[in-house]
Amino acid sequence: MADKGPVGYRGSIETPATIRVGDMVLHDTVYFTVVDMVLARNGAKILHFDGREPLLVEGPITVFRQVGYTVSFGEIVYSRT
């Protein structure tokens, strides 16, 4: 069964260039939030987390982004933030 991620988050495959602070990454069955990142060689990024060593990302990985929503005329409208 595919991992659906934490409640309120949507998974997507992102490249190092499109990863953002606040995204969540699954590592050893635990979700960690990206709190900082720095550029590395050849377009790679080093992601920093609280409570975990940094992670070097050189290619596409699955990240989880919080799903934003607003109520409009009684309907819930979802958008990626």
Short description:
The chain has 81 residues and is mainly beta. Helices cover 0% and strands 60% of the residues.
User: What's the helical proportion of residues?
Assistant: under 10%
- C-alpha termini separation: 26 Å
Structural class: mainly beta
Mean pLDDT: 86
**Unreliable segments of 5+ consecutive residues:** none
CATH level-1 class? Mainly Beta
For the largest beta sheet, what order do the strands appear in spatially?
2-3-4-5
From the spread of the alpha carbons, the general shape counts as: elongated
Report the radius of gyration as a whole number of Å. Answer: 14 Å
Order of helices and strands: EEEEEEE
Using DSSP, what is the number of strands? 7
In total, the number of domains comes to 1
Main pleated sheet: 4 strands, antiparallel
Strand content: over 45%
Number of helices: 0
Q: Please tell me the CATH architecture by its name.
A: Roll
Key phrases:
81 residues; mainly beta; SH3 type barrels; three-stranded antiparallel sheet
Topology summary:
Layout: E1 9-14, E2 24-27, E3 30-39, E4 45-49, E5 52-57, E6 61-72, E7 75-80
Antiparallel strand pairs: 1-6, 2-3, 3-4, 4-5, 6-7
